[in-house]
Design goal:
The longest helix has 32 residues. A hairpin with a 4-residue loop joins β9 and β10. Helices cover 45% and strands 12% of the residues. A five-stranded parallel beta sheet has the order 2-3-4-1-5, sandwiched between helices. The protein is of the alpha/beta class and 585 residues long.
Length: 585
């Protein structure tokens, strides 16, 4: 029977499997195929050859070719294999994995060990004493330990998404092996170790190649500079690794294992340089994940279900009543195209943006109103059921936002929150347009969460500033001042932003302050004035942290970045993943 190894994202069993095969059947009797595009026929060819010759075959990452899995299943059933033949399959869990192949396989689960301590112990179980002692250079042994620590930290930091990392990055054992090979080559060569060379290779090739968020990449860079440093590695009495662990000045495998066993069983925020209250963010993320899973479990299968008037009346009435209540007293849904102002050719950039933003919002509002009205008429029996109406109603019955609405605007996931947010933003835009036409938009605080596209507003502000300064748009830089807009006296179009919250730190009005364990995960922050000014006139940027501003706490969509004064090195604050969040609507 095939042996199916179920792996978790980021884990890689192929190296251990290869070492086992080399010990049992020898390197010439083991074949490994990484599944992907164009590998199907080659995999079938190897399957037939290995079955006849009694070799071991491993097909990796079967979840990437799940549509081809039934073909593999038929081929396995048709085999008459040699008694020494073994077929290994590795795959991440997948809903469409063939049940027959799953049931006929011997299943093994393979996961990365939880916690930094267990992660390190597993690494040193794979590294032999001979590998650690090679060359008898303590600096090499210490650098290898720093690599194992770095690899464990960036893997376990994934438990704190989206604050630790903005997304799940698949740092694997293959990265660890590549890093160890680089250190081995550099330390066995003559001359002093070029730590900058290690920083560059690890950041741009080995580990950083998986990271696609600039601020996550800065976190990775900060770790590399903190761990792979001549003040930490190379001798006794130097800085402690990560500020908590003194590295043995030894090439003995047991000395490093002893240092690992002295670590606490439970990870602490200090290990990751994260704020002390990061557990609150983690608990909030876990709670959201559990709730989303409960919603998925409770969703009925409505794909082939026919129209059920009683069910539609019961389950869709909350959406219909909410929509009626939200639009009570508003005439926006009744406006004709002629009654919705269009931006003119000579309108300034800010006014043109707001008019266009409001126009798109009103049209989306009217689309939703039309769709919900049709659902209501179908329930009352005054309109025939069409495919579009059924699709929209089915999505709402499953507590999803209909696809035709999402394509216009990707708002909150829950339909109730999506409808509330749509109406509140559309109504707020009317006030933005009025203030802009009256010339008072930039004199009063602005809440960017009231806009559908706050990043585009800041770009329009840039165009407006360029016109007033009579300068090219690419010659301006974005500056910030924590206080009234009078602090940006040289700016032509300063605007004060209100409603921001901060995560990962506190702000006392002048500088960043570290969180206490009982600090809230998100804290309100004072108003900030921003503007576009000529490059070079942004003032002193020393001891300031360039902080990303995200649309919400999921950190999926970035609006801009704002500099915040910070004590000490900005690199340490980057490791805390400090971020600003727009106020939830």
């Amino acid at each position: 029977e095939p042996i199916l190894v179920l792996i978790s994202p980021g884990s890689d069993v192929s190296q251990e499997l290869q070492e086992l095969a080399h010990q049992v059947v020898g390197p010439t009797n083991y074949v490994q195929v990484a599944m992907g595009q164009g590998q199907s026929q080659y995999a079938l060819q190897q399957l037939r050859e290995c079955a006849v010759k009694g070799m071991w075959l491993c097909l990796k990452n079967l979840h990437l070719v799940i549509a081809w899995a039934p073909v593999l299943e038929k081929e396995i059933n048709a085999l008459k294999p040699h008694q020494n033949f073994r077929l290994w399959l590795t795959a991440e869990p997948h809903l469409k994995f063939p049940l027959v192949l799953l049931e006929s396989s011997l299943k093994v689960t393979y996961e990365s060990p939880p916690g930094v301590k267990k992660n390190l112990l597993r690494t040193y179980e794979a590294w032999t004493p001979q590998f650690i002692e090679k060359g008898h250079q303590p600096v090499r042994s210490q650098a290898l330990f720093a690599l194992a620590w770095f690899h464990a930290i960036i893997q376990e930091r994934r438990n704190f998404i989206p604050q630790g990392w903005t997304k799940f990055y698949e740092f694997s054992n293959a990265d660890l092996r590549s890093g160890a090979d680089i250190i081995d080559r550099l330390c066995t060569s003559t001359g002093s170790i070029q730590w900058d060379f290690i920083h560059g290779l690890f950041e741009n090739a080995v580990f950083g190649g998986r990271v696609d968020n600039n601020y996550d990449l800065e976190v990775l860079r900060a770790y590399l500079h903190q761990y792979f440093d001549r003040d930490v590695l190379g001798g006794k009495g130097r800085k402690k690794l990560a500020g908590i662990l003194e590295l043995p000045l030894s090439v003995n495998h047991k000395d490093f294992v002893k240092a690992i066993t002295a670590l606490p069983e439970t990870d602490t925020p200090a290990m990751f340089n994260l704020p002390q209250n990061v557990d609150r963010s983690q608990q909030r993320s876990v709670a959201k994940s559990v709730l989303s899973q409960l919603v998925l479990v409770s969703r009925p299968n409505l794909e082939d279900e026919q129209f059920d008037k009683a069910r539609w009346t019961k389950d869709l009435s909350p959406f219909l009543h909410l929509w009626k209540r939200l639009n009570q007293g508003s005439e926006l849904v009744k406006l004709s195209s002629d009654q919705i102002p269009n931006p003119g050719e000579n309108d300034p950039p800010l006014l043109a943006f707001l008019l266009l933003e409001r126009q798109v919002a009103i049209k989306l509002l009217q689309l939703v109103h039309t769709d919900l009205s049709r659902i209501s008429k179908v329930i009352r029996g005054t309109l025939l059921l069409t495919t579009d109406v059924k699709d929209n109603a089915t999505a709402l019955l499953k507590h999803e936002v209909p696809g035709s609405w999402c394509r216009k605007w990707e708002g909150p996931v829950a339909p109730i929150h999506w409808l509330r947010s749509l109406v509140s933003k559309t109504l707020a835009l009317g006030g933005w347009v009025e203030r802009c036409q009256a010339g008072t938009l930039l004199t009063s605080p602005a809440d960017l969460s009231e806009l559908f596209n706050p990043a585009v507003f800041l770009n329009a502000l840039r165009q407006e500033s360029a016109r007033r300064l009579n300068l090219p748009i690419n010659s301006l830089e974005f500056v910030s001042h924590w206080g009234p807009s009078s602090g940006l006296s040289k700016a032509k179009c300063p605007v004060t932003i209100e409603g921001l919250t901060i995560e990962g730190a506190l702000f006392d009005g002048h500088k960043l302050v570290e969180c206490a364990r009982d600090s809230p995960s998100n804290s309100p922050i004072s108003n900030c004035s921003v503007a576009w000014v000529p490059a070079g006139q942004g003032g002193n940027k020393d001891n300031q942290l360039e902080t990303p501003v995200y649309y919400n706490s999921l950190r999926e969509q970035q609006v801009t970045s704002i500099r915040i004064p910070c004590p000490g090195s900005p690199a340490l604050w980057k490791l805390k993943s400090v971020a600003l969040i727009l106020k939830n609507q």
